[in-house]
Design brief:
Blueprint (H helix, E strand, L loop, with lengths): L10 E4 L5 H10 L10 H8 L10 E6 L2 E12 L4 E9 L8 H19 L4 E8 L5 H7 L3 E11 L15 E3 L6 H12 L5 H8 L9 E5 L5 E10 L2 E9 L8 H15 L4 E7 L3 H9 L3 E13 L3
Parallel strand pairs: 4-5, 10-11
Antiparallel strand pairs: 1-2, 2-3, 3-4, 5-12, 6-11, 6-12, 7-8, 8-9, 9-10
Helix pairs in contact: 5-6
């Protein structure tokens, strides 16, 4: 029986660049981790996402000077509050020992202090994968509310993946830096987000940007109306974003973008592809199912609020 650890058994300190390779190795040890195939260069780039204060809120968790986990907190300014997302992992060899609970106790204290110092309440979101034992239990045990649920879907049977359907006058092209504002506009229109051109340029200039894995769909006038992007690490691909302007939805644009991207991923040697979709978005789930994607596991978003007492 593994002995449980408490917060007092662990040391927490700010990340420094010398930790990065160890963090990436810890992430890649888990073949099922959503970031499997991560590189040190990509990790460092992500810490410098504009206006999200990630580098100054990335911590190492140690037991007797041995790294057993890490977490990064991403602060996103909203009009009425600050959303904080957490990227974290516990070393596979140290899971189910109470380290995750200790990390969350530290995070909660850190965010309560930040809320006391700031002018807006903080909405913390814990993204728990049902494929990793204990992650959903953390949200439940800490009395966090379920905010929403994403279905992770996987394509590994390519027989239905690629469909030659393209709306009249519609074409694909790779985005350029000057398309950053249009990329952000499409994303925000589709998802109600607050992505900025600055953050898009940061992404386009990043180590994983590839013209073949980023596509914009434009109408007959050349106006961007949809977008899709992907990563392909070790022949295991992910599609983090597929977005279509609302006025162009249900016109076959999403299907055309998805099919074109799958064609490129298949040619690049991808063995399987994963993406996530809101569990309530039945239309999108139907599209992915028609293209050969099958449900694999879920990502449940739990939330809690910190404000001035």
């Amino acid at each position: 029986m593994k002995l449980k650890l408490s917060r007092d058994d662990l040391a927490f300190r700010l990340h420094n660049r010398a930790d990065t390779k160890l963090i990436v190795a810890m992430i890649n040890k888990d073949q099922h981790h959503m970031l499997h195939g991560y590189t040190a260069e990509k990790f460092e780039q992500d810490l410098d996402e504009p206006s999200e204060r990630i580098r100054e809120n990335t911590f190492i968790v140690e037991l007797a000077n041995k790294m057993v986990g890490y977490f990064s907190l991403c602060f996103v300014e909203r009009e009425t509050h600050i959303s904080v997302y957490c990227y974290a992992t516990v070393d596979m060899d140290w899971r189910r020992r109470g380290i995750g609970s200790a990390m969350f106790a530290y995070i909660f204290d850190h965010l309560q202090h930040a809320a006391q110092q700031g002018n807006k309440p903080i909405h913390f979101i814990h993204r728990a994968l049902t494929s990793i034992p204990g992650e959903t239990a953390l949200g439940v045990n800490l009395d966090m509310e379920v905010q929403n649920c994403l279905q992770i879907m996987c394509l590994d049977d390519w027989s239905r993946a690629i469909q030659d359907i393209q709306p009249n006058g519609f074409r694909f092209r790779s985005p350029q830096l000057e398309d950053a504002s249009s990329w952000a506009e499409i994303y925000n229109d589709a998802f109600g987000g607050n992505k900025t051109a600055v953050s898009v340029i940061h992404e386009f200039q990043g180590v994983e940007f590839s013209p073949e894995l980023y596509l914009m769909g434009v109408d007959e006038k050349g106006t961007p109306v949809g977008l899709i992007c992907a990563t392909n690490r070790g022949n295991h691909a992910r599609i983090p974003t597929l977005a279509v302007k609302r006025e162009w939805q249900r016109h076959g644009v999403g299907r055309a973008l998805l099919s074109e991207m799958l064609r490129g991923l298949r040619a690049a040697g991808a063995l399987d592809v994963r993406l996530s979709v809101e569990s309530r978005n039945e239309a999108a789930q139907a599209l992915y199912t028609q293209c050969g994607f099958e449900p694999e596991y879920q990502r449940i978003h739990y939330s809690t609020i910190f404000s001035k007492i």
